[in-house]
Amino acid sequence: MIAPAQPDLVTVNIDGQEIAVPKGTNVIEAARLVNVDVPHYCYHPKLSVVGNCRMCLIEMGMPAVDPATKAPIMDPATGKQKINWIPRPQIGCGTNVSPGLHVKTTSPMVKDAREGVMEFLLINHPLDCPICDQAGECKLQEQATGYGRGYSRFVEQKNVKPKRTQLGPRVTLDDERCILCSRCIRFSKEIAKDDVLGFVDRGSYSTLTCYPGKKLENNYSLNTVDICPVGALTSTDFRFKMRVWFLKQTNAIDTESSVGANTVVWSREGTIYRITPRRNDEVNDTWLADSARVLYKAVKAADRLAATETTEALVARAAARFQSAPGANAGVGSGRSTVEEQFLTRHLATALKASAQLVSRVGQGDKLLVSADRNPNVRGALVTGLIKTLPAPQLTDLAAQIDAGKIKVVVAINEDLTAAGLTAAQLANVSIVYLGAHANATSAAAKVVFPTLTVFEKSGTFVNQQFRIQKTLKAVPAAAGATDDLVVLAQLVAAAGGAALPADIAALWKVIATEVPALATMTFANLPETGLVLDATPFAALPFVEGETLHYKPAQPAVAAATA
Amino acid sequence: MFDFYFEIPLVIRLILQGLAVIMVIFPIAGACSMAERKVAAWIQDRPGPNRAVVPWVAWIPFFGKFLQRLGVFHVMADGGKMLFKEDSLPGHVNKFYFVLAPIVAMIPALTTVVAVPFGAYFDGAGKLIPLGLAPFDIGMLAVFAVSSLGVYSAILAGWASNSKYPFLGSVRASAQLISYELSMTLAVLPVFLWVNAPGTEGTMGFARVVEFQSQSGFLGGMWFGFLMPISAFIFLVALFAETNRQPFDTVESESDLVGSFHTEYGAFKWGLFFVAEYSHMIVGSGVFMLLFGGGWNPLPWVSLATAVDFLGTFLPFAHAPLFVGILSIAIFMGKVLAMIFFFMWVRWTLPRFRYDQVMKIGWQKLLPLSIANLLFYAIAIALIQK
Amino acid sequence: MAVITVERKPLTFLERTYLPQIAGGLKTTFKHLIAPKKTLEYPEQRPAIPVGYRGVPTLVKDPNGREKCVSCQLCEFVCPPKAIRITAGEIPADQADRAHVEKGPQAFDIDMLRCIYCGLCQEVCPEEAIFLQNQFSMSGYTRAEMVNHKDRLYELGGTLPDAHHKWDKKKAAEEHGNAH
């Protein structure tokens, strides 16, 4: 609906404003371009049109022509071509534009139609707003206020339906609130390809249910909650936790895989309550995997590390380790670090005259929003020059060097070395300087541990599989006892004898712009919300592991398949 | 009956007398602070302090409750608090003078009592003997001389406090005291001109003044307050100013000087200033009553002797010196307390004068008036007593 | 605007002496000295609380003794000094008399050191569960004591008449309405 095959432009008139829109655009989208709001429930720009809510009724007409001569009929009163208005309202979502189409969205007939539709929708809608999680972001509330009658004529008893059905492990259904728009059904069928939802019964008995014996348990089930215009589908995790109007929204990036889906992090007073998708038509449309929505639990996890010493004291101890074994240092960076951290890691490796490597993390791609590469920022390490080749899942080289006694000190950043193939004996043979947010076998074996931040507590950038650099912002303040990775890394670089680098992200980007050619024209502040696509040609020869996802097609599918 | 008393050596006797007077003045000063609060409350339609009570007094049926409602135990509570709270010494003050100031305040306040007779009795010969610690002839002069020393305490306190507001307050205090002392002295002179008639032994003592107000006849029995109303008025106004009472409260004006010279003081040292102020008031009221209010004479044209004679018609012991002494002291104290009530009444009625107004009233109004008053009475007395 | 010139009469000699004014003032204050006292002696004598008085905010129960608050948090949102803190929670479906309510407060704290007694919480409450009632004096020795928790709020609030019986209606609708 949005992107027509042929970008032929069609001129239409909406509430008196002329606008040229691509052919195939429907009236709701065309009106949106001239800032006219056509209220709707069932229509969703990324789903098929069904036209069953009737909220987007508009009045429309075509310029009059003489049937016989095809000559325009002029209106003597205005001197313009006469418009033949259709005597009954039409739905905006199901009407694609045609040349000369005239639309009225504020006429008395439209107003009447909207009031009528609102009244029917509200007849059986329960007065649950005080306890409904959707309150505050509910289309029914907004449009009842904007287009409703303002009072109720319904004196009969309302319908009673089941109020807390578990559709799946993460979704709760309240049937009374459902307005039968079928968005969730269409999403499951068209996007998630898991057609488990449907309506049963007729009339006021219509009820949304799962197919018998099935559950709404695919990894995209929570998108149905996002697109539900009312509070019928609610997230079991977020249910009754917090009212949405208290929550602060911070734009962030999903770091579970290299797709880099755009997200909004909702927090209040330093506590994150939920993560929802942010529309980016080039990356994730309006969707987000369920697995990406629970990542925030890492912020308040029980195994968070907390410092008992000042960062300066820790840096001094780390510096002593570095100097105790000159030339025998090694660095293990992370594909989960931000571009800025990887840039500083590269400087640290240079200062220590050490090799730097990443650990690859490969899973099963779902062809939608979770890719095979579970590191969100391997391409960032390539762009900043931290690594030249793709990382391997096991650190076999490092293990061999430790066994040979060539490596005495290992700086591990956010990576558990035992998971990357090092044995406990090998860890015991070297001094480990560990940077990370959570405790693991490596932090337990480490001589110096810097507790650092989760991705929700810091700002930074990630380069996704499309070589699109996107920024994520700090949603909540740093946990007590944890220090920003940038601060730790900048101090370590200085302690290792490297250049003095700023830990402030804006100042650091000035250094990055001078040293990384691909990022030369950018600053952190002017990076757009939807990201910027970098030139991928220098890395075209590398065998990336990702398969196809929603908006990504691998350049060399054969090579990727061979690697997988 | 009391002859043994006169056999005690004079020094010890005087010390006993002095202690007795101090024992009376101190509680009265304390009671005055309570009375001040009560009068303030009543004028403002409030009941005033009425909560504190000593348990065993509360057990007395009716009377205990009455005393509690009257607030008398608040005096004890206040005094106890002042005695026992921490007596802090600020770090920035001149320690020696800071401690000296409240002591200096008490000295003139108590010393002036010496010169003030507070009653009288008749000896065997029917001669009036005034009761006082030291009934010497220079009474008025002594009072003026000693009471004006009180300003030194204000100056000492203000200067030693080493702080802005106390200093301003003490400067104001000294200027105000000097300004009104002139008028006060001039206002008193006609009284002594009258008393010291040609041919009599000259005196500045109060006893003679009271004696003059207890003569027979219309003019003789008239109190000086009626005979010399302007003098009395000037003296009264000057007395308000000298004791720093409203409406001449500029020295302590809380709104612009916080607490004036005693801003930095607390606990018992502050309490001494407080007692000194009330002692000043008591002595000042006493002097006023002696000069213009007939002293221990119960009513105008009714002298103490007349009253005693009248009582003698139905009280056999009316002429006993002890009874007369007590009666005269009671009458005099009654008048002084009435005067103190007047002080308080005025305080809760009038607003404070601005400092420039205080100076203007003192120098431009009161002083010329008192000079004219003096001239008028000097001429008048010269003509009458020729 | 018309300019009105107010003519000030020059003061007479007597007025300039200020003495008649002093006498008048003394007369006035003396009248008050002997007039009956107007003070209310507080702990023993209590003032009559007028209707609509805004005292300490409290939570009330409905006539069936059920919690009315559904923890919608509108009062927390509207509270200007942010005195109210609510932790919401789900009411289990097996609670027979409250199964329809679904949501209720697990914790409901009003910090009376912050409360400004504005009454916006009462005004905004869609369930008529929070009321500013007659209690006007609150004191404590610690900050923690000055925070009214849920139990205390219900103890202070008691039960008020309820004209709506919303949950009863809901139950009735389920029992003989258009349920299936």
Q: In sequence order, what are the helices and strands of chain B, one letter per element?
A: HHHHHHEEHHHHHHHHHHHH
Strand order of the largest sheet of chain B: 1-2
Alpha-beta content class of chain A: alpha+beta
For the record, what CATH class of the largest domain in chain A applies? Answer: Alpha Beta
Number of strands of chain A: 22
Question: Low-confidence stretches of chain B at least 5 residues in length (pLDDT < 50)?
Answer: none
The stretches of 5 or more residues of chain A where confidence is low (pLDDT under 50) are 558-564
Topology-level CATH name of the largest domain in chain A: Rossmann fold
Which structural category fits the helices and strands of chain B?
mainly alpha
Strand content of chain B: under 5%
Shape descriptor of chain B reads: globular
Helix content of chain A: 10-25%
Structurally, how many domains make up the residues of chain B?
1
Mean pLDDT of chain A: 91
| N→C terminal distance of chain B | 47 Å
**Oligomeric description of these chains:** heterotrimer
Which percent range fits the helix content of chain B?
55-70%
Averaged pLDDT of chain B, please?
Answer: 84
Count the DSSP helices of chain A. 14
Biggest sheet character of chain A:
6 strands, mixed
Give a short summary of the structure.
The complex is a heterotrimer of chains A (564), B (386) and C (180). By secondary structure, chain B is an all-alpha fold.
